[in-house]
Amino acid sequence: MVLDPIDRRILAILQEDATVPIADIGERAGVSQTACWKRIKRLERDGVIARRVAVLDRDRLGLGVTVIVAVRTAQHSDEWLQMFAEGVSRIPEVVEFYRMSGDIDYLLKIVARDIADYDRIYRKLTKVAPLHDVSSSFAMQEIKSTTALPLD
Q1: Cα–Cα–Cα angle for 72, 96, 136, nearest 5°?
Q2: Share of residues in the chain with pLDDT > 70 (%)
């Protein structure tokens, strides 16, 4: 899909704050309110805007521990992957989940209240499917975290 500069400005504004009124977005993007609304609807219809959500503060919700979990498995069948993916998807504390290339088979980002809470989640994770190795790393400091994608 080809995005023109106006589309990119609209998307940048929405990535920053999806609650900005359409009239304000249009003014900042240099188009009328109607033209802005039509562009947003097109971007939604075409799947460029996947959804609009509120970004919550993990610390204020008591989820101050971020854990990056590397998983290795000896299983690589479609059936095993389906079982593992479905099981991991049922763990709400897993906020990101990737199948990887290289030495690590799967990478998960998990949020937890504290180490004891992570241990509870870890026990749940290890019951999902047979795993060869699970290695957990705890984030000491969040330096950058964003949902905004580069648009240039």
Answers
A1: 45
A2: 100
Neighbours of 66 (CB within 10 A): 19
**Is residue 135 a contact partner of residue 69, using CB atoms and an 8 Å limit?**
yes
Taking Cα atoms as reference points, which of 36, 134, 130 lies closest to residue 94? 134
Q: Could you read off the pLDDT of 61-88 as tens digits, one per residue?
A: 999 999 999 999 999 999 999 999 999 9
126: nearest Cα among 136, 114, 140: 136
Note whether 86 and 138 are within 8 A (CB).
Answer: no
Determine the Cα–Cα distance for residues 139 and 123; give it in Å rounded to an integer: 20
Q: How many CA atoms lie within 13 A of 2 on its CB side?
A: 1
Rounded distance between C-alpha atoms, residue 26 and residue 19, angstroms: 13
**Integer Cα distance of 55 and 51 in angstroms:** 12
Estimate to the nearest angstrom the gap between the alpha carbon of 54 and the chain centroid: 12
Cβ-proximal residues to 138 (8 Å cutoff; 6+ apart), any chain: 65, 66, 67, 115, 118
pTM of the model: 0.89
Return the SS3 of 66.
strand
What is the sign, positive or negative, of the torsion defined by CA atoms of 146, 22, 31, 47? positive
